[in-house]
Amino acid sequence: MSFAGTHTALVTPFRDGKFDEAAFRSLVEEQIAGRITGIVPVGTTGESPTLDHSEHNAVIRAAVEAAAGRCLVIAGTGSNATSEAIALTAEAERLGADAALLVAPYYNKPSQEGLYRHFRAIAGSVKIPIILYSIPGRCGIEIGVETVARLAADCPNIQAIKEAGGSVERVNQLRAVLPPDFEILSGDDSLTIPFLSVGAVGVISVASNLLPAEVASMVSLWLSGDTAGALAIHARLYPLFKDLFIEPNPVPAKFALSLQNKMSPEVRLPLCEMSPANQSRLRQTLGSLGL
Questions:
Q1: 71-92: string of b/e by CB count within 10 Å (b at 16+)?
Q2: Residue partners of 59: CB distance under 8 A and separation at least 6
C-alpha cells in the first residue's frame, strides 16, 4: 500500500458536548469530492485525547462507513500505554480501517529501546499497515532515525512515518537510512513542499479540512513534476497554513469551518475558543483566499 498523496487529519465535530456524526460525514464527503487520498480520524486534529474509547471507535466506524472504500482511512490509535495502543489498533483493524497512525508515547518519555519495543509490539498484534508519528513538540521525544530504521527492517507492516519535527534535515537523514519503499509524509502544511523536495511523498494535512482540492492539487502537481504549479499554490495558501496554528490545533480549523456553517466551533476542555484578536486575524486570512 502506498500513502503518497494528501491525507486529511480530520477534526472531530462536537455539538452540545457530543460527537456530531452528521457534520463529520458531510466533511468526509467534501474530502472525497476534493480527491483527497485518505482521511485520518482521531489523530491530534481529531482531539483524540478527549475522546473515551467508545467515542474513539464511533468516529473510526463513521469514517470507514462514510468513506465506503473511496479513499484510505488511517485511524489514529496511538497511546502512551502499549497495551492501550494495541487494543485501539486491533479495534480499528476490526472496524475496517486501512491503516493506523501511531504517535510516539507521550509524557512517560521512554528510551529509544523502549520506543522500538512499543511499536514492535503493536505491529506484531495486527496485520494492517502502520504509520509512525513523530512529533516531539507534543510528545517530548522524537522517534530516532536509527529507531525508525530498525522498525522498518524488523516489522514489515510499519511502512511509513508522519514527520512533524519541523526539520528538513531530519527528512534527509531518514531518507538516507530507510528502504526506498518506506514512505515519509509531512506533518506540517507549511513544510510539505520543502519535505517533498528531499524525498517525502505526501502530507497529513490540517488545512485540507478547509481546502481539500487545493492541498491535494499542490501535492499531486509536485509529484507529477510540475514544481512551479505546486509552488504557486503553496505561496497562496502559506498564510493559511501558518494561521491555522496561531492557537492550539484544531481550535482555528474548527473556527474556520464554523464560519462556513459546516459545524460548531466547539472544542473540548482543556482547549477553548479562540481569542477575539486571533479570530479577526483568521477571518482576514480566510477572506483574502475567498473563503
A1: bbbbbbbbbbebeebbbbbbbb
A2: 12, 19, 24, 41, 42, 46, 51
Single-letter code of the amino acid located at 286: L
Q: Report pLDDT for 20.
A: 98
- Determine what percent of the chain falls in helix, strand and coil, rounding each to the nearest 5: 50, 15, 35
The full DSSP string for 227-276 is: HHHHHHHHHHHHHHHHHTTSSSTTHHHHHHHHHTTSS-----TT--PPPH
Give the model's pLDDT for residue 291. 85
Q: In order of start, what are the domains of the chain with their CATH numbers? A: 5-222 (3.20.20.70)
Single-letter residue type at 149: A
Amino acid letter, residue 210: L
CB atoms under 10 Å from CB of 135, counted, come to: 21
- Binned at pLDDT 50, 70 and 90, residue 138 comes out as confident
> Contact, 251 vs 245, CB < 8 A?
no
Active site residues: 133, 162
Q: Which three cell numbers stand for residue 207?
A: 488545512
Q: How confident is the model at residue 137 (pLDDT cuts 50, 70, 90)?
A: confident
**Cα(116)–Cα(120) distance, rounded to whole angstroms?**
6
* pTM (predicted TM-score): 0.96
pLDDT beyond 90 at 98: yes
What are 243-269's pLDDT values in tens digits? 999 999 999 999 999 999 999 999 999
- Nearest Cα to Cα of residue 194 among 177, 176, 218, 212: 218
- Number of other residues whose CB lies within 10 A of the CB of residue 181: 9
